[in-house]
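S2.1 Query sequence (Fe2OG dioxygenase domain-containing protein)
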Amino acid sequence: MKHDQDAPSIAALACVDLERWPIHQPDSSAYGRRLSEVRAALRNQGCARIDGFIRRDCLKMFDAEVTGIAPGAHFSSSSINPYFTQDDPSLPPSHPRRRYSENTNGFVAMDRFPEYGPSLSLYRSAHFQRFIADSLEEEQLFTFDDPLAGVVVNVMKEGQQLAWHYDTNEFIVSLLTRKPDQGGTFEYVPGLRRPGDECYEEVEDVLDGKSDRVQYLSLELGDLQIFKGRFSLHRVVKGKGERHTVIFGYAREPGFIGRVERTRKVHNRVTQAHIDAEKYTRSDGLAD
Ligand SMILES: O=C(O)CCC(=O)C(=O)O
Ligand SMILES: [Fe+2]
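Output structure tokens follow.
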């Protein structure tokens, strides 16, 4: 997808606290210092808090944009285990694979965002993309071609929760634009499982509230979070008042478009681009 990079980029960086996070000067030593902090946090904790990333005087603009489109969120609720799998009655009832909790997600799709508003401008900013890729120690990252999923708002209404789970995607980049009056805390357990080992006993301890490894991240407005959720169990607890986060999706390869079935689940609709992408993949089995 071709975007007019220049004008939105300038607007996007105007919202970033460049003194704290000099993402416009990726060759500077200040950038290098901040980057090594972020990388260390991601390596050691699987989670980095980019505190005060958005300038205080721009927080209202983000909140207004997100609050304006939040009523268009599509909600889906289900009972999930940490792995999003079906029940397996052959296991004991206390086994993590048999532990189901209520999980509610509300998402606003990308095509509901104002075209030149702060969220899409930031998403498409070359400097922002460079910073996220550098943080994750990736050569390059690409915006999605998916017309719905590139940037989304995650809306949690009062009393809604995200149950303990692992993500299927490797990382998530999110910005808190509305904080509940109470609760809504992000909780996670760094590196709880590893490739080839689910560490079920440790997971069970977390689910039973007996683990001392749980970390609590109380994000402030304008904080950006980079989180690697594939190996770190995590949840968002219920809050008082609504919670909004903008989630920025990037891929290692260009051209990413989500699958029809998953898109329908998340957004309750699909676009022609989703249908075409799936048809094409099916017909020759190739991605490009
Ligand atoms: O909103 C958050 O802080 C976490 C979201 C999350 O875990 C997810 O979407 O998988
Ligand atoms: Fe997650």
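The longest strand covers residues 101-108. The CA atoms of residues 180 and 241 lie 5 Å apart.
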